[in-house]
Amino acid sequence: MDPSKMKAAFMELMETDFTPTVHTSVYPAISPTRPELSQSGRVVLITGGGSGVGKAIAENFVLASASHVAIVGRRLEVLQATAAELKNSAAAAGSSCEMLTYQGDITSKSDVNSIFDDLASKRLAVDVLVMNAAKIGDFTPLMELGMDELWTFIETNVKAPMILAERFLKQNPKKKKASDLPGAFAVWAASEEAAFVHNRIVWAAWDVEEWARGDVRKLIEEDDNYLRIGVGGFALGKRAKGH
């Protein structure tokens, strides 16, 4: 996507009205150093973790004292440079977090299995899965895009998350897990404080305190379909309740 178009699209997304306050930077309620958001003893796996938002998410989990942060990507040199940088951040923050790097293709089931198998060999199970890697394209008509290019989007944005989620959830079905998550918001989203929005579509710019006690929270509690993907008014061939 053209950089100017991408910036315009993201700026439009920022114009949210779900909470009176909209954030563009870290604020106290989602600070990774809050004791209530501690990730102590947790293993975090982040796809696309070598740069950009993925790197910021990794850094915040380091600051939140995760026991291990594993970053996955295609470019080994980028992953290694990020891991070295975050090791320094951990030392400066007094965190004992250990960094792990995995070069691999998340659309490949064998690559994903190799990552989880290696973690298991180290007696580590992933507690928080951050599926940050995605493919974003221009707003091209489907027939102009073509099947071959379309399939690369499906592989990255549909197939890969399914492969990751399947292996993640099979580690230990009885263990509570947290997944899909930028930066400090991702740490908050993986905490018990955020349980009321797990499995719903959320936006990092929303103020979590206003959100937790405002009319949006009321709608979440009253409507099981609120902020979830679906077809409104439709339930297996029949009209949904209330429609």
UniProtKB/TrEMBL annotation:
InterPro entries with a match to the protein in the record: NAD(P)-bd_dom_sf (IPR036291), SDR_fam (IPR002347)
Organism listed in the record: Didymosphaeria variabile
Protein name from the UniProt record: NAD(P)-binding protein
Source domain of life: Eukaryota
UniProt similarity note: Belongs to the short-chain dehydrogenases/reductases (SDR) family.
A molecular function GO annotation: oxidoreductase activity
Swiss-Prot/TrEMBL keywords: Oxidoreductase
Keyword Oxidoreductase: yes
